[in-house]
């Protein structure tokens, strides 16, 4: 079995086992209600996540385990893709395992795997598109650009952020090459597939006066729970995986720019830089860049793997294992429902999404009897 597949399956099992703890997140209630009123688009998102919520409600009404199952599967797939990316970027089985383990213990991925949300599928789409791009470039299999366009188009029916990924990739190629991709008909055919799939969202937005622009302006002005000052976007990146393992993805970014072996993939490093500047300039949320973290962890895992056998090899391996374990403990406490409700103070400080109180009770951490979504929604409508 592939190491990353094993880690992905294990994480998925853990997420499913914990999915029934705490209560529904406010956004999950919104997606369920949106799913009851399906449309090609909504003011702040596309149809994909409400459609998934509707499907899971049809299978098992008012079940948190069922509702959150797609999120657990999506994050398990991200872990698998992180390991496969490490292989594509020159690593062996151990580098694949390191990449998968670092991704599986990252707080952004644990949070995304515990609750159903647009971010969950956005992270998967970004990771899948970058893997397909790397693999298409390495193997010369041009048809993979069409698959990348298909994945990108589905992601655009979730939220518009994948359009920034596409723009960032094109900018990175224009800056660092290989510029022959800009003349490759398969690349543009894939882009065409993405646009065609995105058309229902674009038409709906145009017919309704582009409400997404108003939502984006509100986010840029700090009108969201997860909004941060523009200057905090870069420092916040160290917290998305967790400070213990931040050196791994930073090593990956450095490797994309400095390793001659990855000269053909340097555009991916520039993609990160271009998007970081763009999101800071436009007031985007820090996690908007998180879709590239699996890629950076994969590139960094290869660099870490190559240093493990140098000098005091046993000490290096133990240090890495300890760092992964520490990250799992810290990030697990923040991103997963592991603690009792009366001990959530430090977690709320690190993860404001837990602090969605209704009548003094944290909604995300509600331990009371399950209520039908239709009964919960009127009480929590103000959070939508």
Layout of helices and strands, plus pairs?
Blueprint: H1 3-18, H2 26-36, E1 41-42, E2 45-46, H3 48-59, H4 64-88, H5 93-104, H6 107-114, H7 118-139, H8 143-156, H9 161-176, H10 185-207, H11 211-220, H12 233-241, H13 246-258, H14 266-282, H15 293-307, H16 313-335, H17 345-350, E3 357-358, E4 361-362, H18 373-380
Antiparallel strand pairs: 1-2, 3-4
Describe this structure in words.
The chain has 384 residues and is an all-alpha fold. It has one domain. Helix content is 68%, strand content 2%. The chain contains 18 helices and four strands. The chain has helices spanning 3-18, 26-36, 48-59, 64-88, 93-104, 107-114, 118-139, 143-156, 161-176, 185-207, 211-220, 233-241, 246-258, 266-282, 293-307, 313-335, 345-350, 373-380; strands at residues 41-42, 45-46, 357-358, 361-362. The strands form two sheets. Strands 1-2 form a two-stranded antiparallel sheet. Strand 3 (357-358) and strand 4 (361-362) form a beta hairpin. Helix 1 (3-18) runs antiparallel to helix 4, helix 2 packs across helix 3 and helix 13 crosses helix 15.
Write a short abstract of this structure.
By secondary structure, the chain is mainly α. The protein has helices at about 5-20, 25-35, 50-60, 65-90, 95-105, 105-115, 120-140, 145-155, 160-175, 185-205, 210-220, 235-240, 245-260, 265-280, 295-305, 315-335, 345-350, 375-380; strands at about 40, 45, 355-360, 360. A two-stranded antiparallel ribbon has the order 1-2. A two-stranded antiparallel ribbon has the order 3-4.
């Amino acid at each position: 079995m592939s190491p990353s597949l094993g880690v992905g399956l294990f994480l998925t099992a853990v997420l499913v086992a914990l999915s029934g703890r705490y209560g529904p997140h406010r956004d999950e209630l919104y997606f369920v209600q949106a799913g009851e009123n399906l449309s090609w688009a909504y003011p702040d998102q596309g149809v994909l996540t409400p459609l998934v919520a509707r499907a899971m409600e049809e299978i098992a009404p008012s079940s948190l385990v069922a509702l959150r199952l797609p999120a657990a599967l999506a994050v398990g797939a991200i872990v698998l893709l992180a390991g496969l990316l490490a292989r594509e970027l020159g690593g062996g089985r151990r580098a694949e395992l390191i990449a998968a383990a670092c991704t599986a213990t990252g707080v952004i991925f644990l949070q995304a795997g515990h609750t159903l949300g647009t971010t969950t599928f956005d992270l998967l789409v970004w990771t899948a598109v970058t893997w397909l791009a790397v693999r298409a470039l390495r193997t010369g299999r041009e048809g993979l650009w069409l698959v990348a366009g298909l994945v990108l188009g589905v992601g655009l029916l979730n939220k518009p952020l994948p359009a920034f990924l596409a723009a960032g990739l094109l900018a990175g190629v224009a800056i660092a090459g290989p510029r022959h991709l800009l003349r490759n008909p398969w690349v543009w055919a894939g882009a065409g597939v993405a646009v065609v799939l995105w058309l229902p969202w674009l038409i709906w937005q145009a017919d309704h006066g582009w409400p997404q622009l108003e939502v984006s302006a509100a986010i840029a002005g700090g009108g969201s729970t997860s909004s941060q000052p523009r200057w905090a976007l870069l420092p916040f990146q160290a917290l998305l995986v967790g400070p213990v393992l931040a050196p791994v993805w930073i090593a990956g970014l450095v490797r994309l720019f400095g390793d001659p072996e990855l000269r053909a993939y340097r555009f991916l490093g520039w993609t990160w830089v271009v998007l970081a500047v763009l999101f800071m300039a436009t007031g985007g949320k820090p996690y908007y860049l998180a879709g590239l973290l699996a890629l950076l962890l994969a590139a960094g895992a290869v660099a870490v793997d190559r240093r493990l056998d140098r000098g005091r090899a046993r000490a290096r391996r133990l240090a890495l294992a300890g760092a992964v374990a520490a990250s799992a403990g810290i990030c697990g406490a923040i991103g997963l429902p592991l603690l009792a409700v009366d001990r959530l103070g430090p977690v709320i400080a690190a993860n404001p999404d837990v602090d969605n109180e209704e009548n003094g009770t944290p909604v995300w951490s509600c331990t009371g009897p399950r209520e039908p979504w239709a009964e919960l929604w009127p009480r929590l409508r103000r959070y939508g």
